[in-house]
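Teaching assistant here, posting this on the class forum so everyone can see the example we discussed in section. The complex has two components, and the goal was to see what a joint structure prediction looks like when all of them are supplied at once.
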Amino acid sequence: MQPIDQATLVNSILAATSEVFEVMLNLPVTPGPAYRTPPNSDPTEGVVALVGLAGQWVGTGILQCDTGMARVLFAHLLGVEEAPGGEGVDGEVLDAVAEIANMIIGNVKNTLEEHLGPMGMSIPTVVFGRNFTTRGGGSEPWTIVPFTCAGSRLLVKVCLTHCPEAAESRRGAAVLRGFTI
Amino acid sequence: MIDLLIVDDSAAIRKILQRVLRQADVPLGEVYEAADGLEALQVVETQKVSLILADINMPNMDGLQFLRKLKEDSRWKSLPVIMVTTEGGQAKVMAAAELGAAGYIRKPFTADQIRHTLAAFL
């Protein structure tokens, strides 16, 4: 089983994100240049939706955006003019962002499975707040693809670590690995 | 008329599916919702359902476990279940087919895909 190369991973993120935005949101999205960062992130704020991946390779996929973008995503997904709850985000908005993350990371996973073998995925976990950091449990860097959409920025991040013993012991069960917030 | 059960842990997806079906003039009777397989089993126990749309990745009882339970019970063995899921890997598609799923729609889905798949049940 060959490790996935960076170009394939980035292309899978680009394809999955573009498809979800076009088909489910009817919203144009423009990608920027992909980059890599260490496991620790700088303090951030807004909405972070996480989906765990497990198999021979384990890790996490993330969709991250600010509250304004989260409200735009909700409105386009549900086909309504405006998200509820004034300028903040409520449970309905978080649910919508979680589902969009589920579709994007799920389709990245479908592509990765062609290279890395069968993988399981967790149901999404979504976090909303200010001045928080995320840290991956391993030493692998994050692959990040930034997108511009409706005047705001959103990030799709994936971090994977080769862990064949995890696949053996967990038999494909989805896990959210080593994340602290 | 289709008495429909939508099983998905995302309230947004449950709403979208209902909207798409109503806009497509699918003759819907009662529409029930469940957030996981356990809730869905309670609905089929107590309500008259003629078609089920079910996600796979859900808490408590996932869509494949729910499908297995349903097909093991002679009362619901012939009840058609269409999987609507992000899972596009061959293993999951095959597992659903072997358990007796009547169809498979991958997320993200278009309204046409939903209409086309449901046409066989109208």
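For the discussion questions: Residues 6-170 of chain A form a domain with the Chemotaxis protein chec fold (CATH 3.40.1550.10). The two ends of chain A are 32 Å apart (CA to CA). Think about how each of these relates to the inputs above.
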